[in-house]
Prior knowledge:
27% strand; five-stranded mixed β-sheet
Amino acid sequence: xxxxxxxxxxxxxxxxxxxxxxxxxxxxxxxxxxxxxxxxxxxxxxxxxxxxxxxxxxxxxxxxxxxxxxxxxxxxxxxxxxxxxxxxxxxxxxxxxxxxxxxxxxxxxxxxxxxxxxxxxxxxxxxxxxxxxxxxxxxxxxxxxxxxxxxxxxxxxxxxxxxxxxxxxxxxxxxxxxxxxxxxxxxxxxxxxxxxxxxxxxxxxxxxxxxxxxxxxxxxxxxxxxxxxxxxxxxxxxxxxxxxxxxxxxxxxxxxxxxxxx
Length: 262
């Protein structure tokens, strides 16, 4: 008997969305070894739209719309900036908010979950460790940006370990704990460009990534280092394009919006 034909691989498309930025006025906020004394840096906040056949998924939702139009300052350790919204960008490519079936969140921090509530009809995919921390009201957490799913009745899936989002290996949430208890990165396999590894906050910027630097606000240093090691090994074995979501220098690794990678 012959084998059944393999299912046809879905057409996958990836956009980088502008979800704000952060002016870091004390870069030691990202080093528990005080490696960046006296330095500042402008970080970006990147989100991603994935089309899998006729299905759409958002990966992270950036800074909250309440920040829109506010000027950065030079006094706060971290000063957020937002010049456009996810919904405005979706409108540019003709994707209605109601078409977003899944919102994947790398972790619960406000610069990754800020605009999620604008998509209450989507299923929220978030690490189970983060779900537990939010439900417990762990210090440093807030479920407010994710209110439709935490008390609002919208569908939520706590992700344990890795998750093959569409069941065909094209989009995989990768467990990378340490920054938060349930932190995940994302692997997107594109037919033309090949594998793309999107970091979440496994690392925040290139120098931090290259030196295995750990921010003092990570919840577990050993897990953070193990996740960095796994991420780098995956990148090497897959020959993947590595994108650090807060690294301005990595923005150009994908086509400038509204163009996409395939």
